[in-house]
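Q: What does the assembled structure look like for these inputs?
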Amino acid sequence: MKRRIIFSLIAGLIMALAVSIHAADYPTKPIILMVAYAAGGETDIGARILAAIAEKELGQPIVVVNKGGAGGQVGWTDLAKQKPDGYTIGFVNPPALNSIILDPERKATFSLDHFVPIINQVVDPVCFYVKPESPYETFKDLLEDAKKRPGKITVTTTGIFSNEHLGILMLQDAAKIKFRIVHFDGSAQINTALIGGQIDVGVDNVGGAWASRVKAGQVRPLLVMDRERTKFYPNVPTTIEQGYPTVLMSSSRGIVGPKGIPEPIIKKLQAVFQKAMEDPQHMEKMDKAALAVKIMVGEKYGKYIKDLHETTKKLIEIARKAD
Amino acid sequence: MDALQYWILGFSVATLPLNLLYAFIGCVLGTLIGVLPGLGPAAGTAILIPVTFGLDPIGGIIMLAAIYYGAMYGGTITSVLVNVPGEAASVITCLDGYQMAKKGRAGPALGIAAIGSFIGGTFATIALMVVSLPLATFALRFGPPEVFALLVVGLSLVTGLSGRSMLAALVMTFFGLMLCMIGMDPVRGAPRFTFGIPPLYDGIGFIPVVMGLFGVGEILLSMEAPVLEVIKTKITDLLPKREEWRVSTGAIGRGTIIGFFLGLIPGIGAIIPTFLAYVVEKKVSKHPEKFGTGVIEGVASPETANNSYANGAMVPLLTLGIPGSPTLAVLMGAFIIHGLTPGPFLFKERPDVVWGLIASLYLGNVMLLILNLPLVGFWAKLLEIRYEFLYPGILLFCILGAYSLNQSVFDVGVMIAFGVLGYIFRKLDWPLAPTVLALILGPMMERALRTSLEMSAGDLSILVTRPISAVLLIVAAVVLLSPAVRLLGKRAGKEDGG
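A:
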């Protein structure tokens, strides 16, 4: 018995030592950056741009691995279970992450406590789009019509309790209006339905394919749910300008790791990714993809996710009561 | 941009040296898959999807498409030389092709098949170029209710046309639809029938299922079959005689038209066009009694029709995002894996992909003609590879392919399970195509239906008050109830791998 205790003590010591040696040399092998969506999506595009720049800084390859499905739930379930050695980290997309945790029907097996925030890359605000020939010239037109015809104007989301859905719920609550909410799979389907006249207003984010559609004159943005105007649509008003200072919603993309990664490794990753994100090459490529970079490191990023968690909780409660 | 500019854009993409190389590799692999018994185009494309992961989307899709229509060519070789179709769409070619080979006319049979396939494929590609753009514009009028109705038409066609028994086909369709229920509810996000098993949250993977049903299942079945006997004949003169040319010209023309138009209808599958082409040819022939004894029109027409169909079937896939056969469903999976959603907007947003692919179809047909005519002897040699070496190799590829999709051992398990199921279903003579199509169309159908109901605030009449949707639903009802359609299905009989 005694020998066993001594043995396990020594073993524990060796392991502790191994971890600290590990941390000092980290990384000694390629690291995996998981993306919980399919290749080619906006999160994936951002991740690949970042990985290509950051791996030069890190001295080891950063391999982007796509594990899509169930709106991110499949990948995040997997990420939460990874060994916290710093060799597997991944992108999360609050508030989609928060919604999955908070919505009881989702039966998520992970919570915010399973992750440690590393750094945020993108904050992409919710945006309202209409067809060029739509009767709504401005957001005010849409609002007036919504007051006249409650529950009749169709608006889209990219899924239940997605950032668009939460944004719409916020606006409905603040403006005392009611839309008819139609959930779609993603941006391409929303665009088809919008141009085909199947729905009245396409609600999605600023970035990605929408920016090029706006440039080509295929769609018209009416409103951005942010504090400041986006540099991609400088002529489009924000919710604050329209008198709804609390209606702010964005999709965000940042890197987290499974809880328990040693502090020195976290610090190293933060330094590497921050440097990579500030690289002009990164900025230029993200601008081209119309993805607004917003760097938030460590605690600051953690607070952003937690605040969003509270907001999401309230909105989901409101929505579930309305059902 | 007008049509001509799109064509130029397409050819400029397709003729990039790297893309030409991908198309060429695809053609070679496709012919190989077609030649090897035990592997059809559906399993072949599914297994090779992971190979394209490292390529850019255009290159990857060009290669997969080339595998698809390459297999249509390759399947003919085994039909003619061993009386075993290399893939399902060449079943009917056995009738006259094998007889021709017995008479020492294997060369012209393979020659006319290659030439007919080239002509059919080429004309269908040109027709695809002409109709795609207006159809993509028209497709914008397809909202969720219309998409739902069209999917119902597709599923009822595949049910009505598959196999001998309508009941068996219905069972297989519903089996597929039930499989789609596993995983996340596509709208609500709640897990269904997952029993807390995380890999099931994302549902049963479509590609492992195809690999299992069509790949592993077919191999298990082939192991029972006796070793194939290849007709030992010198394939020297590939070109048909003048008299044979004369009768083949009409046959090729009719095959092209039948193949292309049937390709436009989702759910028809690759077999029906070949049967219809053969039947029509027999009807117009002056000597119908000679069919089955080795007449060249009996090879020319169905072989033309199946390649024309292969290209025609790209139309609903590209314009509406609706795959008409299991192989096309795999191809659609490849689009999605590469981050592209087939549908009207792909024409606007990625004209380089759409037109590059279409142009590559055209170039691929030229390559296949070159590959097939002089190299027929080489392909025939492949048939002599002993199964003890061949099948373990294919199985290994299946396992690697299934694993590399998501780095998931679970997917490998799914593939093996469906391999066993595929073997059992084949033994029972229950058609596999309805299950596979239901599995890929089911989630689209559920989405479309639920989105429609969100649009109408729960009112079901949205499905019948919109004219396009109403007409399509009537068509679906007619298909399921019409004995005429079922009769055609009975003729088609065997499994549809195309």
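Residues 298-322 of chain A form the longest helix (25 residues).
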